[in-house]
Amino acid sequence: MDDRKRAYRNDLLLASTLIAAGIVMSGVALMQLSSRNPAMAQATQPLQASPPSNQNNAPAESKPGGERPTTPAPEPARPDTQAQTEGVKAALPPAPAEKMAPPINQK
């Protein structure tokens, strides 16, 4: 009985010591975080805007006051007639006969 009490007391002392050490370490870390400069460093350079291209097919700028751009909007891509008549092709070739499973029998 006395050995159990001593072991329990030692375990309780060890657990409380570990908890106290964790609290002290957390406090030290929080103090270091609060004492540092809060300004963040930027890891990458900001993106540079590409120079404007001088093309005539660029859409017109919108202006305040209700005017609409005069350049027509781009149209969606349409497949040519040969691709439409052929239809969708299979992504993979059919499996060889020896790799196919036998048909499932209905009960």
Could you explain the architecture of this structure?
The chain is mostly helical. It has helices spanning 2-35, 81-86. The model has no long low-confidence stretch (mean pLDDT 77).
Key words describing this protein structure:
2 helices; 37% helix; mainly alpha; 107 residues
Q: Count up the helices.
A: 2
The low-pLDDT segments are none
Structural class: mainly alpha
Strand-residue fraction? under 5%
Globally, the shape reads flat
Average pLDDT across residues?
77
Q: Roughly what percent helix? A: 25-40%
Distance between the termini: 69 Å
Radius of gyration, in Å, reads 37 Å
Q: Give the biggest sheet.
A: none
Order of helices and strands: HH
User: How many strand elements?
Assistant: 0
Write a brief structural summary.
The protein has 107 residues and is mainly alpha-helical. It has helices at 2-35, 81-86.
Strand and helix map with partners:
Elements: H1 2-35, H2 81-86
